[in-house]
Input
Amino acid sequence: MGDIKKVFACFKELKIKPNVDSFENRVRMQKAVCILDMMGVKTGFRFGMYVRGPYSPDLTKEIFSNVRNFEKIESEGKLTSQDRKNLEFFSDVMRGMDAPMLEIAATFAFLAYGEKKMPYREALEEVRKLKHFYSSTQLLLGVNKAKELLFVPTEEDKKIMKEEFALWEKASDADFAKVNPT
Amino acid sequence: MPMGAGTQEIAERSSSLNPRIFSLPRLLLLGALHSLGRDGAPYRELKASMPNMPDGVLFANLNILEQMGYIKREEITYAGKTMTAFHITKEGDDEFQKARDWLKQWIEG
Output
C-alpha cells in the first residue's frame, strides 16, 4: 500500500487541493503522483495502463478515504530534500498544473520511461492514438514536458548531441567572425 | 462428453448470474469502468480505448448497462468543456465481480 501522507505532503508543496468532487482535479492528482514517482519521489502506489492512461486504483481509494483529514495528514508526510528539489522542478516545468497537459505527459512518460521503455516514436504514436481528441500542439507540449522532466541522456545521446552542437558552434563562430573581423 | 462434478457446479452457479452482461462489449465496458471505480471515464476516453468498437455499438451497450443500473452517467467539466462520463455502480461492480469469478472457476476447471 502506498504512503498517502507523503502524497498529501507533495500536494501541499505543489499547491494542489485534494478536492475529489472535481473530475479535473482527480485527474490532476493521479497524473502528478505518477510522474513524480518516475522522477524519484516514491510514494509506493503502483500504476498500470488503464483506459485513461496510467492510473492507480489504490491511490484513488486512499485519496477518497483520507481527503477529509487532508490538513492533518499532509503535515505528517515526510519529504526528503531530494524530494523537495524534484517537486520544485516538477512545479516549475508543469506551471499551472494544467490537467490535459499532465495527462499527456504522464501517458508518454509511463510508456517511454516506465517499465515498458518504449522507443520515443512508438510511445508518441500510442499517445496520439489514446489521446486523439487533443490537438497536435497540446500533444507535443505534453510530450516535451515529460522529456524535460525525465530525459536522462545516455553516453550515445551525449555523443550525438556533442557532434550536433559542434556544427552549430562552428556555424556560430563563422558568423561571429564575419560580424567582428579581426 | 461426460459432465464432471466441477462442470455441474459451474452450471449451477451460472443461475445466479445475469446473462445480459455476457456480451463482449458489455464485459469490456464493465471491466474498464470496474478498474476506474469512483473516478469513471469520459465517453471519449472509453471510445479511444476501444478503437474497434463502432460508436453505435459502444453507445447502445452503455445505454443497456445504464438501464440495468450497472453504470451511471454524469456530466463533467474538463478543461473548460462539458462532457459525458460514466462510472460503475455498486451493483455493476458486484455483478462484474461475480461474472469474473465464475469465468475464472470455469477456465481453471
